Amino acid sequence: MNQDYIKPDNWSIIEEGFDLDQVKSSESLFSIGNGAMGQRANFEEQYTGGTFQGSYIAGIYYPDKTKVGWWKNGYPEYFAKVLNAPNWIGIDIEINGENLDLARCTEVNNFRRELHMKEGIYFRSFEATLQNGTQIAVNVRRFLSLDLDEVGVINYEITPLNKDTKIKLKPYVDAGVHNEDANWEEKFWEPLEVQNSGNEAFVTARTFKTHFTATTFMQNNILLNAESLNLSPSNVESTKEKVQFTYEIEVANGQKATIQKLGGYTVSMNHENTQVAAQNVIAKAVSLGYDQLVNNQIEAWAKIWEMSDITIDGDVKAQQGIRFNIFHLNQTYLGKDSRLNIGPKGFTGEKYGGSTYWDTEAYCIPFYMATKDQQVARNLLAYRYNQLDKAIENAGKLGFTNGAALYPMVTMNGEECHNEWEITFEEIHRNGAIAFAIFNYYRFTGDYSYIPEKGLEVLIGIARFWHQRATFSTYRNQYVILGVTGPNEYENNINNNFYTNYLAKWCIDYTVEQINRVEKEYSSDFNRIMSKVNLDAVEIGHWKKVADHMYFPFSEEHDVYLQQDGFLDKELVKVHDLDKSQRPINQKWSWDRILRSPYIKQADTLQGFYFFEDHFSIEQLEKHFDFYEPFTVHESSLSPCVHSIQAAKLGRMEQAYTFYLRTSRLDLDDYNKEVEEGLHITSMAGTWMSIVEGFGGMRIKNDALHFEPRIPKDWKGYSFKINFRNQILKVSVHQNETNFTLEGENPIAVFVNGKEFLVEPNSLVTV
Question: Can you give the pTM of this predicted structure?
Answer without folding.
Answer: 0.95
